[in-house]
Amino acid sequence: MSIGILDREAIEPELDGVIKLNVTATDMGVPPLSSWVMVVINVDDENDNTPIYLDSEYTFHVKESESGILVGYVRARDADQTEYNNRTSFRITSGSLGSFLCISEPDGAGYQGAIMVDPDVELDYESDRKSYTLTVEATDLGQRKAVVTVHVEVEDVNDTPPLFPPDLIMSIEENSLPPAFVGVIEGSDVDTNHSLIYELVSTRCHCNKTWGVCEEEWFTLEPTGIVRTAADHVIDYEKCDQVEMTAKVIDLYTEKNSNSTEGIVMINIIDMNDNPPEFIPVQDFFVVLSESVEQDSSVAAVYATDKDTGENAKITFHVVDVEFLGANAGDKPEPISLIFFAETNKQPDALGNYNGVIKSHQSLDPDRKGKYLVKVMAKNLDLHTNETIELITVDKSFRVGLRFDSPVANVNENLAYIKGALIGATKAMVHVVKVSTETVRNAQRKEVTLLEAYFVFPNGTALDSDSVGSILNTQEVYEQYGVILQEYGLTGILTTTFDPQEDKLEVFIMIGLVGALVIVLVVMTTSLVCIRRSYRRKLKAAKAMNKAAMVAAESQKAGPVVPGTNKYTREGANPVLNLNIDSTTDLGFDEDGSSADRESLNSLDYNFDMGMTHEKDTMAMTIIEEEEENMGESTYIEPLGAALAQRGKKKGPESTSLTIANPSLNTTDL
């Protein structure tokens, strides 16, 4: 057994850890006998020693821009005697920043670590890292470690190209007289020893919104970097507004790599605001649904640009004139009020163009056919340009009514699908203006929906009801779209413009009111006519009675009379009461009376026109005066009583006649 700790490293390395012992065995006899044997003990090596660097610190120097170059070696020893236990590996644990590698390799007596620059990296003296502090770790297979510090200093080499100033922009006003100073290029070089000069490589010009080779060299570049305008050339903003100058800076002292760097100098030409705005054509005309246009509705859009820059390029739009041109041949533009106005978008788009929206001040007449000619002015400070745009109207006659056997809610719910089917069938844009209800007055009172829409093509033409019906009734369209529309309830297309039921109701109410007013007027007129006729008859009767009362009682002549009448047997006995009735003045107030009554009351129908002249009245009075001269008696004789008296005389002289004269019972009163 061992009387102490065995240490492999205490054994001479050349013995390779082998201990040989001679062991003798002796007995206790007399004489004692013995024998011996050699015992070989192999002491195995254990990894119980840590690697030790030969130097406590290392410092190396390396040139910049050398990729994969060797920097230096670090060496360490391990006291363990076996190769397995004293094998040492090296690695950089910190400070490398990805620029260095360390490779382990044997050096005869032990192991060393070769530090080199990463093949993919070139050290740069001009960067912020001019030196590195590395920590290198030596590790055996038993993970026993030792560390050492390595300093790496980077040496400068003139290998960096000069720097061209980035984003270099210069400006010059157009029409500047040469050789005007434009600017100067100031390059730089991070190397400690350098000398820079400048050369012009090429120029490009931005003309008419495109880049290309300059037709004229407007600028020159001196070796010192000064840029000037070239002689014999005039800078014109209207031709080109920018010049891109490509130049390069050269380092005369460069040792390695490129000695020059190219860069861009952007030269802006300052505009002097000598160009009016220019309209950008968008489309030849705009299509307007007159019925859909209300106040502040957008009807068209205009675009304009200006070659000027800055404040000079800001554009505002104004409507300066509006005319209407009818659709009939030979119509001339008719000036109208400014029913349109322009709103300008204050910010230009990505291309620098300004946009204006033409809007309506009021609703448009849906029955007016033709187009509006709107003159729009694009203004830029003191300069302006006018442009006339055409607004082609789609009048109310092109409104198409489609009847759906479905409630309004269902039609609105499926409106997008219905429009899609109509667009696919007609190949026109469908503008729905109204979805309303039409109540069908039948036993079921089923709700029917009317969808009113316009079918407009981009060229301004539109489809009417007949055209839409013809298209939907074609076999191909019907199979593809008609079946779909029928599923949503389409039952027919109105041949005329549909007026909503509520609009008809208002018309019916107005017609009823007018009819009632007419009836009232007729009744009142008839009543007035009847009252007037009755009044005239009474007035005529009163006039006749007054004339009869004026005749004195004595002027009445006795004579035979006709019983029951006012006529005497002698012609002309009573001219006032015996005048023939003038049929032209008979107003027919006695239509209900019998012919006998008419005859008996003939003397009452003294139908003199109230408007007769005094000449006729004088004639009648003359007849009375002549008859009064022939009358022998001055007393008044009642005509009926006279007739009875004559009858009594015929019976005999002895007959007694009793006559009662009572003017209040005069037959004239009948």
Give me a quick take on this structure.
It contains nine helices and 32 strands. The chain is α+β, with helices and mostly antiparallel strands and 670 residues long.
Low-pLDDT segments: 498-503, 567-573, 575-636, 650-670
Alpha-beta classification: alpha+beta
Mean pLDDT: 79
Largest sheet: 5 strands, mixed
Instruction: Output the number of helix runs.
Output: 9
Shape: elongated
Roughly what fraction of the amino acids lie in strands? 25-35%
| Helical amount | 10-25%
**Total strand segments:** 32
| First-to-last CA distance | 187 Å
Strand order of the largest sheet: 11-18-17-13-14
Radius of gyration: 67 Å
Describe the model.
By secondary structure, the protein is an alpha+beta fold. Helix content is 19%, strand content 34%. The protein has 9 helices and 32 strands. Strands 11-18-17-13-14 form a 5-stranded mixed β-sheet, with no helix packed on it. Strand 17 and strand 18 (260-270) form a beta hairpin. The N and C termini lie far apart (187 Å). Mean pLDDT is 79; it is low at 498-503, 567-573, 575-636 and 650-670.
Task: Write out key terms for the chains shown.
elongated, five-stranded mixed β-sheet, single chain, 34% strand, alpha+beta, Cadherin domain-containing protein, disordered C terminus, 670 residues, transmembrane
Blueprint of the fold:
Elements: E1 18-26, E2 34-42, E3 52-53, E4 57-63, E5 70-77, H1 83-86, E6 88-94, E7 100-106, E8 111-117, E9 131-140, E10 145-155, E11 168-173, E12 181-184, E13 196-207, E14 210-213, E15 219-221, E16 226-229, E17 242-251, E18 260-270, E19 278-280, E20 286-289, E21 298-305, E22 316-326, E23 334-336, E24 340-344, E25 354-360, E26 370-380, E27 383-394, E28 400-404, H2 408-413, H3 415-426, E29 429-439, E30 447-456, E31 462-463, H4 465-473, H5 475-487, E32 490-493, H6 501-550, H7 595-600, H8 614-630, H9 639-651
Parallel strand pairs: 4-10, 11-18, 20-27
Antiparallel strand pairs: 1-2, 3-5, 5-8, 6-9, 7-8, 9-10, 12-16, 13-14, 13-17, 15-16, 17-18, 19-21, 21-25, 22-23, 22-26, 24-25, 26-27, 28-30, 28-32, 29-30, 30-31
Helix pairs in contact: 3-5
